Amino acid sequence: MAEKIFFDVQSLNPHVKIIAGTFKPNGSSAIDNTANKGAGWTVARSGTGHYVVTLDDAYPGLLSAQVTLQHNGAGDKKVHLGAIDVSSAKTIAIYNIEGASAADLAAHANNHVHFTLILRNTDMTK
Q: Which are the contacts of 102, defined by CB distance < 8 A and separation ≥ 6?
């Protein structure tokens, strides 16, 4: 455990909430949500190279979202965000692309998808 003094995040936007997490891809099989890092969400494989993160709670708005891939090997792999609905469906789509096509990510100890969501937890838009 870190032994430093941590301070609250300050923002010009009111009621900002951050949800960050990591999940392990599992090829064409279901994701093991017990291996997830982070809280407030689950993830499911929805199709080839397509993952859907589902938030535990709804939020009035999304300020920012990032997704990155940690992969054991070199190659033409990248992840990107798809449809995002944090207010009603509470879902974030993530796609893995190899070359020009969606592809599953193999299960491996060093293969992870990391994401960070910066959410607005108020109806105020500024």
A: 47, 48, 49, 50, 95, 96
30-46 per-position pLDDT tens digit: 999 999 999 999 999 99
Q: Is residue 33 part of a domain?
A: no
Domain that holds residue 79: 38-120
Tokens, residue 76: 């033409």
Residue 112 in any domain: the answer is yes
Q: How far apart are CA 115 and CA 96, in angstroms?
A: 13
How many of the other CB atoms lie within 10 Å of CB of 111?
20
Q: Of 40, 42, 41, which Cα lies nearest the Cα of 32? A: 42
The distance of Cα 114 from the centroid of its chain, to the nearest Å, equals 6
Global confidence as pTM: 0.92
